[in-house]
Amino acid sequence: MPDAKGSGTREDPWQLKTPPGTSDYQMWRDEASDPPAIVCQVGATQLKYQLRAIEDLHTWLREQGDWVPLGAADEQKAATDGTVEAWGRSPGNPVGGWYGLRKGYRGRFGMYMPPLLEALGLAEVTHDAKNNRIRAK
């Protein structure tokens, strides 16, 4: 996948595609929010994740040492153990729970964060129709 298009600001957001390549979305940093956030705009829907998720996820992926399934799931659905999605809501992660900040829209971490890490040069993501995986660079 090519380098990130956009600079990650609200005025010039990163232009991304979901891992299967079926949907376009945008992300940008909102460092003024409390806590600092990554805003994810998918059509009319806006999700927010803690900004530190970029560094924290990259660190966790490096610790895993190999491919990890994405396991994307909505907030209301259980996440499969051992996936990026499960880690993004686990009491054992560095924030002690959800990286998602907007109640009702805290899930899909495993869908939207991995392409950002890939675009930033921090990870590789597979781009199959389903069951995609990620590993740290």
Keywords:
137 residues, alpha+beta, three-stranded antiparallel beta sheet, 3 helices, 20% helix, globular
Based on Cα principal axes, name the global outline.
globular
Stretches where pLDDT is under 50 for at least 5 consecutive residues are none
Radius of gyration using CA atoms only? 13 Å
**Number of distinct beta strands:** 7
Description:
20% of the residues lie in helices and 23% in strands. By secondary structure, it is of the alpha+beta class. The protein has helices spanning 53-64, 84-87, 109-119; strands at residues 14-17, 24-30, 37-42, 45-50, 68-69, 123-125, 133-136. Strands 1-2-3-4 form a four-stranded antiparallel sheet, with helices on one face. The protein has one domain. A hairpin with a 6-residue loop joins β2 and β3.
Offer a quick outline of the entry.
The protein has 137 residues and is α+β, with helices and mostly antiparallel strands. It has helices at 53-64, 84-87, 109-119, and strands at residues 14-17, 24-30, 37-42, 45-50, 68-69, 123-125, 133-136.
